[in-house]
Every structure is written in structure tokens, then in C-alpha cells.
Amino acid sequence: MSYQPSSVLVTGGCGFIGSNFINSIFQKWPTARFVNIDKLTYEIRETNLAAKVRQSNRYKFIKGTIRDIDLLLNLLKDYQIDTIIHFAAMTHVDKSYADRIGTIEENVMSMTTLLEAATFRYNGIKRFIHIST
């Protein structure tokens, strides 16, 4: 793996796919700092991440929403993020059927806010990877 980021923002990093990604890539990018932002909904827990990741000084957890552009901009600037890996989404099928409009609004506006922050208001992003279900 030739790409070596210095500071990675992972959205939804406590969910099933996001936490497995962080657990897997953490040692492959040994100098990278990981900032994980997650709302911790639907029984999602930070303990989905390995203890060695959670206890590392290269890992920071932020409980929050990516719809908060001020929070995003602060994270991007404060941690000098150069890579974003976007997993965050409302994916619970039963909830999406019960609130179709709310689910679409949450997912689309979250992505829009993240793109706004990463492309128009901050200049340090080298890679933006969007994972979608």
C-alpha cells in the first residue's frame, strides 16, 4: 500500500464496516492519526474498535454529527486532515422504511455538508473516499 496519509477523518467509524476498516488499516498506516466522528446511534458503540486502537495516542473519537459544519471545519483544521473516509449513513432498514424522507434527508444532507466542508472551505484534502451501502 503506497499511499500513507498523515491524518485521516473517518465518519461513522464505530459502525460495523467503519470499525472493521479502522481495526484493519490502523497498523498498515503506522504514522497516521485517526479522527473518528460518529453519532453512536442504533446501538453503535466505540467498543467495536479494538482496545489497542482506542487506547492509542494516534486515535481520537468525537461524538457528533457530520451535519455540523462548524464541528467538521474545526476537526479538519485542528487535526490537519488530509484524507476523509466516509462511512456515516442511516442504514437501518426498518427505520428507513418508517421514515423514508428523514432517512434520505439525513444521508443526502450529511454528505452535502461533508463535501462543502472538505472541498469549498478547507484546502488540505488529498483523498476523499465515500463508502455507500
From TrEMBL:
<feature type="domain" description="NAD(P)-binding">
    <location>
        <begin position="9"/>
        <end position="133"/>
    </location>
</feature>
<dbReference type="InterPro" id="IPR036291">
    <property type="entry name" value="NAD(P)-bd_dom_sf"/>
</dbReference>
<dbReference type="InterPro" id="IPR016040">
    <property type="entry name" value="NAD(P)-bd_dom"/>
</dbReference>
<protein>
    <submittedName>
        <fullName>NAD(P)-bd_dom domain-containing protein</fullName>
    </submittedName>
</protein>
<dbReference type="GO" id="GO:0003824">
    <property type="term" value="F:catalytic activity"/>
</dbReference>
<dbReference type="Pfam" id="PF16363">
    <property type="entry name" value="GDP_Man_Dehyd"/>
</dbReference>
